[in-house]
Amino acid sequence: MRLDRKILRKTALILSLGFILALGFSLFLHYLHNAKGLIDFKISKGYISLRKVDYKFFKKGALAYEIFAKSLDYRSKKKNIIKLNIVKAYIYGKNKKPEFVIRGKTGRLNSFSKNVIVSGGVTIKTRKGTFMKTSIIDYFAKNNKIVAPDYMVIKGENYSVSGSGLIYYIKKRIFVLQKNVHFLSNNSDGVIK
Q: Are 151 and 134 in contact (CB under 8 A)?
């Protein structure tokens, strides 16, 4: 009799565990199929779609930049382009704190070169309080520079600069505006400090 009860208990336990595993697996498949619930993740041939993205890029062991987006679409292995929606990017400096915070409606990340293009109402805020506004920017990871070909407005504590064709060298903290440059100073003595 003891042998029969032990076998019965083991069989009931195995059947219960099998049922729980089958139920869990079917729920997992349901969430994958509907792209709702736990993981919000779809994969098919050459296509990936994610929601709530946090992408980090490290250069020589240090965090170079971090991108947050509400969604991501990766469509082709050949183009190496990841499309981002509602983008917020942090570019980090030597002190491991964000030097720049870039926001825009859309973005494109090249997964090979690690360059980023942000467009649509782009704003850039520096750690020291400078504010920039333009329609599109390119961040070149290898050269550590920001390029904005369109019209841009740059506002600091005591000045305002506008023009087009911005090149900003991040390490050197130098920016160049190439065309139609206008400068206004708010200092009472007119001297740039």
A: yes
CA 67 vs CA 52, 55, 102, 169, 179: distances in Å: 10, 5, 9, 20, 30
Domain membership flag for residue 29? yes
Q: Quick one: 45 and 108 in the same domain?
A: yes
Tell me if 109 sits within 8 A of 55, measured CB to CB. yes
- 12, 48: one domain: no
Long-range contact pairs involving 82-88 (C-beta distance under 8 Å, separation at least 24): 82/55, 82/108, 82/109, 82/110, 82/111, 83/107, 83/108, 84/53, 84/108, 84/109, 87/118
pLDDT tens per residue, range 107-120: 888 878 888 889 99
Q: Which residue has the tokens 């504010």?
A: 131
Residue 4 is part of which domain span? Answer: 1-39
> Is the per-residue pLDDT at 41 higher than 50?
no
Whole-number CA gyration radius for the chain: 26
Question: Is 190 domain-assigned?
Answer: no
pLDDT, greater one: 122 or 99: 122
Do 173 and 142 belong together in one domain? yes
Q: What's the CA dihedral at 94, 98, 104, 106 to 10 degrees?
A: 60
Q: Running DSSP on this structure, what letter comes out for residue 39?
A: -
Q: List % helix, strand, coil for the chain (3-state, nearest 5).
A: 15, 55, 25
